[in-house]
Amino acid sequence: MVNHDKLMEFVGRFAGDLGATMAAGNVVLGHELGLYQALASGPATPAELAQRTRTDVRYLTEWLRGQAAGGYVDVDPQTEQYSLNEEQAFALTNPDGALYFPGAFVLALGALRAISRIREAFLTGAGVGWHEHDADVFVGCEQFFRPNYAGNLVTSWIPALDGVEAKLQDGGTVADVGCGLGASTILMAKAFPRSRFAGFDYHDGSIALARKRAADAGVADRTTFDVNTAQSFPGSGYDLVATFDCLHDMGDPFAAARHIRDVLTPDGTWLIVEPLAGDGIAENLNPVGRVYYNFSTFLCVPNAKAQGGRYALGAQAGPQAIRQVVVDAGFSEFREAARTPFNLVFEAKP
Question: Name one Pfam family in it (predicted).
């Protein structure tokens, strides 16, 4: 017999999820139309905000009410004046800040456009490559991950590695493998002007954008970006090789790990940044695990299967699975160097 209280609890969860699903599109609208930034300049009624943003007041009224219902903006119900508190503004208004929520929804909606292909892949076991996804996946991925990298990569992750910061300050050689649009590469190049950086990604569209963004950031003189795979990227004698949130996407992470070991200097370092996860499913039954398992179903596992390797680690592989790949590839040292609410940061040495 159905337990009524438990059923109502599940109905409440369903209503929250359905509202969040539709809210994703509304957050992207706020991002693309500059609505959050405009509201951050001061409280406003729908009419006042419509005037600021040159948008239609009726649409904006509905949008604001939905945002208030979800807790993304605040409202005075008596005056229907809307505002952003400091925490909301911090998370919703600065794409270059340490936290920017809208980018995650750009990525999510872009990934969901592949639902027909993913449905077919469930039936056939075939893969769906990263390059086959909607363009919003590439842009949204950068917008999702870049704030975390901006807030942690130079200030805490690299300093947590043994001797790496000093090498880069003096002038080192770095490979950023699976660099995407180059956000991590550019952050490092700006922080360490004496070092040289090479970004590699198999997706030519991402590499083209990375080159443009490096030029716009003024670091093109010390960065290069080339189309290549993690198993075959060129060069040797790297002081640091970095893989940011991409090892688990690879069809053959073991081959990538072996190649990385081969191209490092004898005292070089492999910086491995992976999604936060425990080793067993019970440790991952939480909101962060839910985010990553669901993204992984649409993006990570399909990409790994498309590459025809022996693995499909998925975004919740966990430390032991990553350690096994590293040790099997011949690395002698492996440790957790840092962590954030969304990432585990590992150091491996030959």
Answer: WHD_Rv2258c
